[in-house]
Batch of 3 targets.
Target 1
Amino acid sequence: MAPLFLDPGVFNRRVALDQPVVAADGAGGGETGWQEVRELSVRIEPLSVASRERFDQREATVTHRVLCRANDAVDRGLSFRLGGRRLIILSVHDPDESRRYLVCRCEEER
């Protein structure tokens, strides 16, 4: 397979890569917050919107593909933060196994 070529100009958005941090709530549970790990340049591509009814309300699930340069810090369970939006990383893969780029499938947190 030929290596994937991406023009560096496609990484046109700056996002924060955040990791979840659980703070104890004093009752045996916890509340999840987010802590910034680093900033990255990425390309964000909307993929799909799925609508469903839950508890008599309509909910929408929005998915995105996020491309970035390979980075060991990027992993499932982390999130990309863009302004007030949060994209939870569901999967990460190296599209051409060259260790140059990562493709992340994400779901927008509502």
Target 2
Amino acid sequence: MAFVVKDRVKETTTTTGTGTVTLLGAATGFQSFSVIGNGNTTYYVISDPIANVWEVGLGTVTSGSPNTLSRDTVLSNSSGTTSKITLAGNTSNVWCDYPAGKAVIKAADDSVTVPEIVASNGLL
């Protein structure tokens, strides 16, 4: 399927563990992950404000009752690793984001910063 990023996508979850996140509906003033599209991938953030942990990654949206978000690739987390955080079942926020390490940035002086690009053979 496609890679999709949308604005103002935010839901909550009370999922436990390190598996797929069950989404509980759009936060007030936001869209649900269903706007990403069934089977499409997107960047996400999960933040548990009670346990003070977070995770940034790439996941796949599955439409259903309820919608879910798989945690396919973790890019970073609050422990400084690329492992999935263990969710404790607290109400955590889940939103669509654009990770800094993946962003192409145009500075005020019009210079452009592009993250490290690696060819399919692993060479720069």
Target 3
Amino acid sequence: MTLKKIHRWIGLALSIFLFVIGLTGTLLIWKKEYLWLTMPEARNVIENDAVSIAQAIESIENSYEKDLISLIALHSEGLSLHKVFLSDKSYAWHNQKGEKLQQWRGNERVEDWLLDLHH
């Protein structure tokens, strides 16, 4: 009888764990579309020429104090935003011209919270 109860509780715990992983993974599939809905700048035409990208990077670097930027993730496919990772554990979205659109800490944005929960 005790073995059945242990098996039942372990099975319940594992099924909840797998449900959360599956649900968050499914929601993260639509991250790009979510950003399109919440940030209109994300739908702009992507400028892929070297001059535009260099100007954006220079503008982003000028927006912060020296050594605060850890990484600049240039736009991904279908998303015309650059994500900046800062050394103080905060992040920012910049448009293609390098203008700051939004800055947040940790997992304050829904998509970052979902990714943390998924991991």
